[in-house]
Design brief:
Layout: E1 3-8, H1 15-19, E2 24-26, H2 32-40, E3 46-51, E4 57-70, E5 80-95, H3 96-100, H4 109-112, E6 118-121, H5 123-133
Parallel strand pairs: 1-3
Antiparallel strand pairs: 1-6, 2-5, 3-4, 4-5
Length: 136
């Protein structure tokens, strides 16, 4: 199993939107490094849902419901999608400030490559954020 974090602007697609569907294609990603990360996602991988913009916080947990497949909107066939299903809402959203304050999380991509929209997490970093969010 692998662990990930995906970022979304709440005005475009929020955690509440994600909760309202069984699963949803994660689309609109055009950064090649983020695309590479999406291609590495496997069914069952766990994914933190992060609100970017003003909120800047991990707000929920998803699971990869469908591994990467071609984006039907992309005529160039360079880009892919993955489908995500919401699992659980964070009891305590974990802000970017709280993540940056944790020495154990200093090396994660969210801190080091803040503009990347789909990023891997180590199992240790995932567990640390999971505990901070107080998921059940």
């Amino acid at each position: 199993m692998h662990y990930w974090l995906v970022k979304s602007e709440p005005g475009d697609w929020s955690w509440q939107d994600q909760l309202g569907v069984t699963s949803e294609p994660w689309d609109g990603v055009r950064n090649f490094q983020a695309q590479k990360n999406m291609r590495a996602m496997e069914v069952g991988d766990k994914v933190f849902f992060y609100h970017s913009g003003k909120e800047r916080a991990v707000v929920g947990l998803c699971i990869v419901a469908r591994a990467s497949y071609p984006d039907p909107e992309d005529a160039t066939e360079r880009f892919c999608l993955v489908d995500l299903s919401a699992i659980e809402t964070a009891a305590s959203p974990v802000t970017l400030a709280a993540i940056k304050a944790e020495p154990a999380l200093a090396e994660i991509a969210l801190v080091r490559q803040s503009r990347l929209s789909v990023m891997p997490l180590s199992e240790q970093a995932f567990q640390h954020i999971y505990n901070m969010a107080r998921f059940a």
